[in-house]
Amino acid sequence: MKVLLIDDDIELVELLTEYLSSHGFSITAYHRGDTGLSHAQTHDYDVILLDVMLPGIDGFEVLKQLRQTKLTPVIMLTAKGEDFDRIFGLELGADDYLAKPFNHRELLARVKAITRRIENIQQLANNSLEENGIRLTPHTREAFAAENKIELTGTEFEILFLLLNNQGEIVSKEAISEQVLGRKLAPFDRSIDMHVSNIRKKIAEHIEQEKIKTVRGAGYILLGSA
After folding, report:
1. pTM over 0.70
2. Tell me: the pLDDT tens digits for 152-181?
């Protein structure tokens, strides 16, 4: 698995490169937002680790421009306690975030969760799953709303797949976090809410009716056909 690391902390980059390489990952590193973006746009990676504070252009702008052409999974590296950074990054299409300073083993777990998800998708049969105007093709990771293709990040696709596979049943945020992000849901963690919000917006561009209902205090449910 190939990982692109964009962070201006040279010492941290060296440590992470050594650590992740020892666990079988191939690491490419850039220390500026602009050069990192240029490389990410012209090369394929399995995961991108993206710092928020960068010279050139910041991590948000890198992610915003990257999402115009690529859906490569992105883990944002944010300052500890900066809730705005986390929420804004998720709104722009980040798959997950990790607050600095972080435990290297926690980062490894996040990266492995994403790579496992990629492997699981590749092993799925090329059969479509369809309900109430929403259609997913797991093998190709394509999503359609009223037969219009919608571009979902890997995390968004997996969440919609989980809801579609459990159509008519409430799926808790805890279950989504554990099955999709590969981690327990932390208190006050709004990552699942933001991912679902992004999915809703993309579906709403083609279908007016509500498709994903929030069940307060319980989770989310994908509505069936009327």
Report:
1. yes
2. 998 999 999 999 989 999 999 999 999 998
Q: Under a CB-based contact definition with an 8 Å cutoff, are residues 60 and 89 in contact?
A: yes
Q: Exposed (0-12), middle (13-18) or buried (19+): which is 129, by Cβ within 10 Å?
A: middle
Do both 131 and 209 map to the same domain? Answer: yes
Residue 48: domain span: 2-120
Q: What is the pLDDT of residues 47-76, one digit of tens each?
A: 999 999 999 999 999 999 999 999 999 999
> Could you tell me if 115 and 17 lie in one domain?
yes
Between the two ends of the chain, the Cα-to-Cα distance in Å is 43
* Cα→Cα distances 91→32, 41, 67, 85, 193, Å: 22, 20, 11, 10, 10
